Amino acid sequence: MFQTSLSSEALRGALSRLPSGRSVFDHTGARQPVHTVYGGAHLFKADTARKLGAVALRAVEEHAPDFAAFARAIGLPGAEGLPEGRADALALAAAIEAGGGAAESASGAARLAHAVHARVLDKLRREPVEDLRIDFEDGYGVRPGHEEDAHAAAAAREVALGMAARSLPPFLGIRIKPLGDGCAERSLRTLDVFLSALVAASGGALPPAFAVTLPKVVAPEQVSALADALDALEGALQLPAGSIRIELMVETPASILGPRGEVALPGLVDAARGRCVAAHFGAYDYTASCEITAAHQHLAHPACDFARHVMQVALAGSGLWLSDGASNLLPVGPHRARPGGAPLTPQQSEENRRAVVGAWRLKYGQVRRALESGYYQGWDLHPAELPVRYAATYAFFLEGVDAAAARLRSFVERAAQATVAGTVFDDAATGQGLLGFFLRAIGAGAMTEGEAAERTGLTPDELRGRSFQAIVARRSA
């Protein structure tokens, strides 16, 4: 026996002061979309997601018609060693798809580029948009009240048609105008018109995971006002209480730091009274508010890094999804052929290609940078950005999958052996992080659950359990 000085009562008193908050690894396991597409409410139709996918596929076909050309266009690592001729690229793709010795002899860069390209094309055909926001703010502008009323009701009816046709993305919502700067009454009226028309057209249903995005937040009272309005609307429309989610736009200095220098984000989230599910960073409003000139407003600016990191630290362990902002260069060529007019000249086509490829490379770098920083979602504003969004996401996970799988296998084995021997395995956080890599990869569509199970040696049930400690406990029992 070892001598101690604390009585049981004193020990219990000290322990009673400890918070009972959850671990940073405690989460619901819900799928997080890899992006949010914003589009003006006046343009939204029930089949908008399908049309965006078709435009994205045409962009790939026009500017990068094979896997090697696509890899070079976006700047995938090792792309410079891939065949430049289309016939050679197609022959290499056929060899990789056939498997066997020919596939194994292909370089790692070629296999990665082929896998990314194939997954991107499949995604654009099957589910081109994961999350779509019907925008009544910057993407819509200021219009007469009767016109915005009409667009709100029309967009709602299109959502109802999409629900019936199963043509909507898995995640959907609207972005209203700010609850400030004289827009508050107009903003809440649009929300009311939209939801009232949607419930009437759909027979009382909302799309799954429906969210309202609140932009330019500067005070908790704005979030509380939106929560109050949603409480009232759910009651009036006989919707389940709390069924409408709130997303916060973090795009003002006041949404980062309060008037006395305190971190503002927890108070903003609390003001949503359990409705807040995500915080989205708005780089351009934020940098403009910091008096950064337009030429230097971009996602890689140090001011943006500061804001994003504050978001991460302030909301760590909260379960909220974090999203990066949008690129400031869209993949759009300067030339467009007129219907019935002359086709583009070879020089014009080449100028278009260079413009698109330049924007693709910028986007690829921005998405990769965000992923490396722990931001697994971002904004897309143009359909031609979708191929790069998915390519960067898939490549991020596929590049690291072999090393992560080997480490996870080793960690599970070592932890189970330590438990059986009655010793302590003191790096469970790293094991959970490695497991999280594969859970993120599955959620992002970079690999299937079956592929992750095969690579890691875990069972599908162990992956679905999402707990490294539970896996170890089960294997050491």
TrEMBL record:
GO terms for molecular function: kinase activity. It comes from the Bacteria. Its cofactor is Mg(2+). Gene3D superfamilies: Phosphoenolpyruvate-binding domains. Pfam families: DUF6986. InterPro entries: DUF6986 (IPR054255), Pyrv/PenolPyrv_kinase-like_dom (IPR015813), Pyrv_kinase-like_dom_sf (IPR040442). Keywords: Kinase, Magnesium, Metal-binding, Transferase. This is Phosphoenolpyruvate kinase. The lineage of its organism: Bacteria, Pseudomonadati, Myxococcota, Polyangia, Polyangiales.
